[in-house]
Specification:
Oligomer: single chain
Bound molecules: adenosine-5'-diphosphate, magnesium ion
Radius of gyration: 71 Å
Shape: rod-shaped
Number of strands: 29
Structural class: alpha+beta
Distance between the termini: 129 Å
Length: about 850
Amino acid sequence: MIRQAKGKTPRRPPLKKPSNNQKDPVGVYCRVRPLGTEDEECCIEVISKTTIQLHAPDGLKANRNGEFKETQYSFKKVFGIKTTQRELYEDVAKPLVEDLIHCKNGLLFTYGVTGSGKTHTMTGSPGQGGLLPRSLDMIFNSISPYQAKRYVFKPDDKNGMEVQNQVDALLDRQKRDSQTNVPKTPTTRRIDPEFADMISPEEAFRADGVDEDSSYSVFVSYIEIYNNYIYDLLEETPFDPIKPKPPQSKLLREDQNHNMYVAGCTEVEVKSTEEAFEVFWRGQKKRRIANTQLNRESSRSHSVFIIKLAQAPLDADGDNVLQDKNQVNVSQLCLVDLAGSERTSRTRAEGSRLREAGNINQSLMTLRTCIEVLRENQMCGTNKMVPYRDSKVTHLFKNYFDGEGKVRMVVCVNPKADDYEETLLVMRFAEMTQEVEVARPVDRPICGFAAGRRQRNQVFKEELTRRLEERGGPVNGESTTLSQLLLSFPSLPPCEIGGPNDDITLPRLIEALEKRHKIRQMMVDEYNKTANMLKSMLQEQDGNLVAKENFISEQHGRLGEKDKMIQNQKNEIDRLEKKSKMLEYKIDILQKTSNIHEEDKRTLQHELESREQRLQRELSDKRRMESRMQGIVCDTKLKWEKECERRVNAKQLEMQNKLWVKDEKLKQLKAIVTEGKSENRQPQRPSREKDKVPPKRSASPTPVPTVPPVRPLHRRSHSAGGERWVDHKPTTNVDLDTLMQPNLPNAIKVTAASEKALSKCDKYVLTHQEVASDGEIQTKLIKGEVFKTRGGGQSVQFTDIETLKQESPVSASRKRRSSESGPSHEGERMDGDWTDVETRCSVAVEMRAGSNLGPGYQHHGYPKRKKP
Ligand code: ADP
Ligand code: MG
């Protein structure tokens, strides 16, 4: 607040810096203008309501990798190419105007490269009024019913505001009217078409909560800062067409509240939007002319339009502005269209122009440095000096950054690729600016008067007018009212006295006057009564209003508390939002990890399944194979069993035949033997019935030997240290390399059975070879015991058969079978061969023909099972 407190003994000390410790960051908004032509390369993309993304143009990417990668910048809000001026105003400038009306200062500047839309944003064009005309419009829409008469407020020359008395103000007004040819009614004036229709009426805004018990006045100033010089664009200089005087630069001063102001700067009091904008346009024209005359580029100057709003409370009657300078509040809104932020190299500056460009850069550089230092001070708690004084722009606005008001910045960008590098710098600066915080301005103190004075005064005036009207006659100001009142009295009789004896006129006059006096008395009474009534009515209303005011202030307090609470909760929400973002990010990562694992799991499962299937297949293959093998084994077994049976039967038949032949021979022998005793005995042909005997015997499992061996009368003693063996090996035998040869010490080896040898021994063994069913040579050791017959001969009773068999290792199954039985003490005794029921048939031992064994040497017997 720029507050005036002039005078030797100010009633209130100058306002100190706001004690408010609440801070707001500088509000930085970004506006992206549309491309000039459709086919231009675009390097900016609005990706959300608050974020833009910069893409390095194709040419740049190739040159410097890394530095020009895609970058995002966030702002309080981003306005895309379709944003209307009204939308922008509502978000950016409207709150500042509301603040202005509520006695708070504001600073709004547009920043950006030349051609990025700063002027378009700030000033606009007909039909597309910018922030400036809209701000003016809203101010007047809000305060016009409460505007003070012109010259009631009068700026002093020290950034303060005085209140003039009614007479002085009136005199000033008359002076103005006589000096200028401005018509009295501005609404009927023709408006300059250059700035007509900046804002359509339906787009108008109005501030709420305007204090009706104050009077307002608006003052505008317009300055330009060029090459670090300040020029007053509203200064009235006598125009000299022959030798135009170069404009004089202005100085910056500090007022007694330590606020900066341009000394001697013109402040024009304006009463309407049109008037205000006309003043602005005048300044604009002047600026254009000066730039042309002095060959300057307007893009290199900063223009500052200052709107000052003076407000002072009405007096107790609510009729006039209170004549107290200390009660005057002045708030200001600065609208700054900064110079183009491009670097010197881009401006193609030469000579003196280079210096200018350098200075322009200097002031923007200083702004940058100030922002940097401010940010550093705030973030690191340091107390570095901010170099505001290094340039006029920063110096002029230093109070804002020290907490004198809200600061907002609209960063304008042109998305064209040519501007990319400059835009990048603009973005960096803008981002940094957002980190600077500015103290929140404090609320204006409330003046001591009861609220509602203006309305009461109005009500009173209306009531008075009504009453007077009731009495009839037109009411036209105070003088007419008086004459009307006079007319309502009874008219006076002619008061010319005819002579000393005229005693009619005077008494008549007296009577009329008395009547008048009575009426007057009545009227005075009436008036007093009405006045009293009104007074009491007003007092009552006063009371009501005070109560309401108290209530409102109480509510205000509560609202403040609630605001604080809301702020706290907002902070908490922000924190939680950040946290939730973080968690979301984490979840994302986990999701991804889990997806990978899921994928792994699926592939492994697949593999497992395929393996299982393979296993299953193999198992079923195996089972099939097994069953096939079993089938083959069974078949083979059956085949061999049949074969065995066939062979056994054939053998049996053969043997029986042989046996029969031998029997016959034996009988013949017997006959020969008995012939010696009874010579006439004729040999008998065996009967037909007898012939049939052998097959019968073969059927019997235990054939009885035809000649049962005679029980030995003299059993040879075994005690005499071992038996003697007759080892009968027919010459036909093949000599095999059998390891397991019978070990028979003291044996008598014979090739044919001889009576002589048998008589000397008690044991007999015949080594018999034959070809077995499988084609192998099979050796059988047929053992027997030798007995002496009654006739003095020798008889052998077979007791045992050992079979020795050579096998080729190829016929595996047989070999296995023989090995299964395990080696016995006799080596190759084939126990196993006799285990099967089928094979446990009788075995006929063939006494080879020509073996010279006599009858009774045949034996059909079972081998004894060997005990393990
Ligand atoms: P600056 O002041 O930054 O140098 P200007 O405001 O003069 O730029 O804009 C340059 C040109 O671009 C002007 O012709 C203006 O009308 C146009 N322009 C800028 N911003 C916009 C926008 N948002 N919409 C349409 N035209 C725009
Ligand atoms: Mg411009």
